[in-house]
Give the backbone structure.
Amino acid sequence: LSRLSPQQYSERIRRISRELGFDYCGFARAEALEEESAKLDEWLGRGYQGSMSYLERNRDLRTDPRALVPGARSVISLLYNYKPAADLAGNGSYKVAKYAYGEDYHRVLRGLLKTLLQRIREEIGEVEGRGFVDSAPVMERQWAARGGLGWIGKNTLLLNRNLGSYFFIAELITDLELEYDGPIRDYCGTCTRCLDACPTEAFPQPGVLDASRCISYFTIELREAIPDGFEGRFDDWIFGCDICQDVCPWNRFARPHAQPRFEPKEALVVMSKKDWEELGDVTFRNYFGSSALMRTGLTGLKRNIAHVKKRPAEGGPDT
Ligand code: SF4
Ligand code: SF4
């Protein structure tokens, strides 16, 4: 290792992360997430995870990053802006969450994390580390909040005063001792826009998401049929849902990303509802083969389209 202070290591890593295009980088000590894990257990106990049983697994790994990466001392959290220059949700077609407009973020960010670790090794020395993107055992928002990158809003997402919430979170868990950033305060104030705007009433209380009622869960995670009572409530969303972010004042002034790989797929920009309904498997793959839409595949999207087109049952929804 080069002989630098933890503060100097932190500064170097922050600089490298910026050079790689990450918008923010924050550091937290790798230790047990006691309070956060207790909250998660309570959430699971209420069944808010729906059919996402993978969230119930790996409890020990999730509680303590040292169980995930032996010898871990620090959790480096990184934010990468994905806010598109244009919101396609207003173009009259079926709606897709902004994070899925371009190339699959897992690919993009995994590559960047790998480069980040390489660069750290070149500049600092023999550092062990493991990168995570959207990985169940890592409580990403909680780590990013501990690293001072934002606060967890009433919509349960991490909010950053400059970026809003349209960003990806990635972690690099490492054995390097760093200088740590503390959590910051909550800037939601008295606002309740996200809670009020959710069309499926998925927030039983501020800061708690019943994922089993969320459009994002229904359209992407749920393998079975979408349950009765949610007809007419999806507002044309067929892959994810951005409503509780679109209404958030912190997203109003966020600037667009500068990553060419996150530019929207051309097909997404031009396809009408009719085009979606008539889309065949081969064309779908040609258009979206490298995108996160492959997660549900065309079959999943067609199921979602069929749901979106259903009219509410007589007497309205069941709530
Ligand atoms: S993503 Fe949509 S459905 Fe889910 S909580 Fe937010 S507004 Fe509600
Ligand atoms: S909409 Fe308002 S309450 Fe919801 S996350 Fe944004 S600032 Fe917080």
The longest helix spans residues 105-124. The radius of gyration is 20 Å. The chain has 13 helices and eight strands.
